[in-house]
Specification:
The complex is a heterodimer of chains A (285) and B (295). Chain A has 2 domains: 99 residues, no CATH class; 151 residues, MetI-like fold (Orthogonal Bundle), CATH 1.10.3720.10. Helices cover 70% and strands 1% of the residues of chain A. Chain A contains 16 helices and 2 strands. Chain B contains 12 helices and 2 strands.
Chain lengths: 285, 295
């Protein structure tokens, strides 16, 4: 800071605290709602902002399913968490591996069609899922991939940003390292495994955070390609619970599900904050 | 930085083997569908896929003479401009403040960035719950202030709801970029201005803000792309495009027409128009990125 201005510093803190409260308020309401019963939420409206005593029962109903007071079925969230986790892991690791391999080819080899391949990857940036929903649906259906893990993940693992990130990074690796390994008799695969892979550890960690969140938070894709409840990811499953209308929803269970759906990606962000910030900023360069 | 490596490996088939997985995925799931969307957009197909005929640009003509499509354009424009401007202003304010304080800056950052991890659909559900007309806590508070909140009936309120949810989710992203931008501004510039007698407010507008303009412009493009495409889940979870079609942004309408109303040709034509929009935005972004390298 340039000059000491205690008043300005105080104002800065107040603005930040207000910002944090504003950003966290929805989370607090969600947490509190998940500790109450659905009758408390609906009948007491507006609900109390103090935690209730129904925490364990609500989460049990959310995780393992059960009956509501009116007799309708609550679908269990535990299997959805499994689906989400598998999808997020496959998408994140798949993106990282295929992008690394192709970036390696783009940087360390010269082969006919290299420019064409590079442009093909580049153009995918301009074709997000949302603009080709109908036609992609027909392709995936034609390949018989509806309601499969392959259908949920493979179409999403192409990644222009990850390929560019690795390409940029490989370009900064000193040529001397390559020369040294060649003199030592290492072929390209040996070089990739023993030199490039360890050097890329930070980039891999950074990308993993971003892509795990991307995979976990997919919504439109599973909405189109899954009709089988055993393949619902949690982010899509929660939407299915909102059928009851304003007062008819089991809000406490819905909010518990929301917490469960937020927890894994939020933990990844908080535990790997350093890499997360790096990945976010680097991916846009 | 070198664009080409001096040292390369010589191998006939290995590079192709390395790019093969990426190329297969890209071809099957990107180029094939995009091509078929282009092809579909000039066909008229009955809803059960039984027959189709070539109709040229009829699908596009039909779209642009359709009032609800033009209205969806307007809705999307209002939505994305408000999301981008609100998100950028709030994040800029918070980043400037976070850059100012010394104590607790890391803690504030941690507490502000976590919504990045929240899925858009979950963000929609959270805000829907707070504003639910009969049980929501904020809608009750508003009612006691004399504002009758019911986004199921009032289109403007529904729009406000999805804007708030979308901005809430995006603040963390903007905040991180602004903070990184602010931290890269040389301290000496600010100090020199302070010695010359410039007050903080003056310093911000004449030094900090101009130096941040590349970041701001970059975020503007990213936020518009976000509002156009990534907010589908927020809309679907919070309002389903309603009431009426008041919050049906373009992506939502393409989905609805293709999968609910089964107008395949019309939906494909909408996809083609969306592709054109993404391409335009990407070109803008990359032209700018090239310029930024010289800074």
């Amino acid at each position: 800071m340039v000059e000491r201005r205690p008043v300005m510093t105080l104002v800065a803190h107040l603005v930040l605290i207000f910002g944090v409260l504003l950003v966290s308020f929805p989370l607090y309401v969600t947490l509190v709602a998940s500790t109450q019963t659905s009758e408390q939420i609906v009948q007491q409206a507006p609900m109390s902002l103090l935690p209730g005593s129904n925490l364990i029962d609500t989460y049990r109903a959310a995780l393992f399913g059960g009956q509501t007071a009116s007799g309708s079925r609550i679908s269990p969230v535990a299997p959805m968490l499994k689906v989400s986790f598998i999808c997020a892991m496959v998408i994140a690791l798949g993106k990282i591996s295929i992008s690394m391999l192709s970036a390696f080819a783009f940087v360390y080899f010269r082969f006919p069609g290299r420019t064409l391949c590079f442009w093909m990857v580049f153009i995918t940036l301009m074709l997000p899922v949302e603009v080709r929903i109908g036609s992609t649906y027909r392709v995936v259906a034609g390949l018989g991939l509806l309601n499969t893990y392959a259908g949920l993940t493979v179409p999403l693992i192409a990644s222009a940003t990850a390929t560019f990130l690795f390409r940029q990074f490989f370009l900064t690796v000193p040529d001397e390292l390559t020369e040294a390994s060649r003199i030592d008799g290492a072929g390209p695969i040996r070089f990739f495994i023993d030199v490039l892979l360890p050097l890329s550890a930070t980039s891999i960690a950074a990308l993993f955070v971003i892509q795990f969140i991307y995979g976990w938070n997919q919504y439109l894709w599973p909405l189109l390609f899954t009709t089988d409840e055993s393949k619902y990811p949690i982010v899509m499953g929660i939407r299915r619970m909102l059928g009851g209308g304003d007062a008819g929803n089991e809000w406490n269970v819905v909010m518990a599900t929301a917490i469960l759906a937020m927890l894994p990606p939020a933990l990844v962000v908080l535990l790997m904050q350093k890499w997360f910030v790096k990945g976010l900023v680097d991916a846009e360069k | 930085m070198a664009i080409e490596k001096r040292v390369r490996f010589g191998n006939r088939w290995l590079p192709w083997l390395l790019v093969a997985p990426q190329m297969v995925v890209v071809t099957i799931f990107f180029f094939w569908p995009a091509g078929s969307a282009l092809y579909q957009s000039v066909l008229l197909e009955d809803a059960f896929g039984g027959s189709s005929q070539f109709v040229g640009l009829d699908n596009f003509n039909r779209l642009f003479s359709d009032g609800s499509y033009l209205a969806s354009f307007r809705t999307t424009a209002v939505f994305s401009l408000l999301v981008a401007s609100c998100g950028i202003c709030i994040a800029l304010l918070l980043a400037v403040m976070a850059n100012r304080v010394i104590r607790g800056a890391t803690l504030y950052t941690t507490l502000l960035v976590w919504p990045y991890a929240v899925a858009p659909a979950i963000a929609g559900v959270l805000w829907l719950f707070m504003f639910a007309p009969s049980v929501g806590i904020v809608s009750h508070a508003l009612r006691s202030l004399g504002i009758e909140w019911n986004h199921l009936l009032n289109g403007n309120q529904a729009m406000a709801l999805i804007i708030m949810a979308a901005v809430w989710k995006q603040i963390s992203y903007n905040f991180l970029f602004f903070l990184a931008g602010l931290q890269s501004i040389p301290k000496s510039l600010i100090e020199a201005a302070a010695i010359d007698g410039a007050r903080p407010w003056h310093r911000f507008w004449t030094i900090v803000f101009p130096l941040l303009s590349p970041t701001t412009f970059f975020l503007l493009v990213i936020n518009i792309v976000y509002a156009f495409f990534d907010t589908f889940a927020i809309v679907d979870a919070a309002t389903q495009g309603g009431p009426g079609k008041d919050t049906a942004i373009l992506v939502y309408k393409a989905y609805y027409d293709g999968f609910k109303a089964m107008d395949l040709g019309g939906s494909a034509a909408q996809s083609v128009i969306l592709m054109a929009i993404v391409i335009a935005l990407t070109v803008v972004q990359f032209r700018y990125v090239e310029r930024r390298v010289q800074y």
